[in-house]
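Sequence only, no structure available. Ideas?
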Amino acid sequence: MTTHNSLSVSEMDSASTKHKLAVYGTLKRNMPNNHLMKKQKFLGSGQTSGNHTLHGLMVFKEPATAPVVIDLYEVEEKQLEGPLDSLEANGSVYKREKTNVTLEDGTEHEAWLYFGLPQWVKARFDPEKPPLPPKGTGVYNWGSYT
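Reply:
I predicted one. Tokens follow.
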């Protein structure tokens, strides 16, 4: 195995793997958990390309009601699979899934986003009557609810 500065090639590859992550809640800029994003690269603000439902702290894939305002980051794999997945209880409360987002400059990206697991929908609201974004906005913005 080739090593460089005491890291193996496989460790260097793992350390340099980057992922795009769209965040909508406490991980956004100026929010309480943004300290976990400080060493990650901020790519811009925008919204999901598809429609979802925001209720409380969670974004749900269905019902498809309106876009969600996001901040997009390029994150290191070790940060994504470590502290971020842990914070979001990935797999038990949220599920990290790929989705498309559009930044304010019009660029489109595929990114990970933490969606509330489907079993939480019925516990939170009637899926036939999802909560709607504020009148006149047409988008969900987590920060406007807190």
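The radius of gyration is 17 Å.
Hope that gets you unstuck.
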